[in-house]
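#structure-requests
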Amino acid sequence: MGNSRWKEFKRAELLLLAFIVCISFNYNPQAFFHTDYQHWGWHFSLLASVLIILIMRYRDPGSWKQKLGIGFTGKDMLGLVVTTVCLLGISYFLVGYLAKLSNFSFIPRIFNYKRIIGPDYPFHAVAGTYIYYIPETLNEEMLIGAVLLMGLERRFKKLNRNIIAISVALIFSLMHQALYKYSPYQPGILLTVSTILALFFVGILRNVLILKTRKIAYSWAIHLSFNLVFFAGFFVNRSTGEFASEPERFNIVFGNIPMLLLTGFLALLSVVWLNVNTGDLKSI
């Protein structure tokens, strides 16, 4: 094996290692490591963030920030914070409205955990639940967003960016189906076709944001704000009082016509934006 081919092989190994780290530490780590430690989530997901960054920094010392999509300027950081805060409010009202359409009540954990879980449940465990989603979504955006998306763009230079955005969005949506179907820590409930389609549309929107800005700031803002609301709350059936499982939550929120129309409209706008050149705008 030639020297250049050996280097490419080692680079591929390091990239695979980064994905393995993400899968191992980012998802259900308390079950994976058989621990009921109350802070399990954010410690493991933050460790994954550190390891992913170190691996990519060693692999691509001159361009690791760009390849991870985290070469943020001060303006990018401000945009990330402002967008996340604004979308937190929008996500709260949107999730609550969509839950009602399916005869469910959405109850934010941070304000109701003592009533739902128990009066002795510690606040630090609730805070850990929210903190977990910061590095968890960052890891997904760096690897499934920037590394995979822009890596395909660099690898297949003649491939249309629309095809890349759509293909990765399809992977994003089907990953959710595979997780809930085959994970030993999930009930095996399948997502509906409309849920998968809505997730596919969300994936297109996020992919276009990354391809156009070359950074994950705004895609991460969408992902983080929604996860902080969606996963950190309770969905209670108004008729039976039963709590919805995680895949059932997806079907409740994404598997309905309003969400399908909203995400489809945003995906369409993003694809139009992807195909508009900056030069074309300047000439108008």
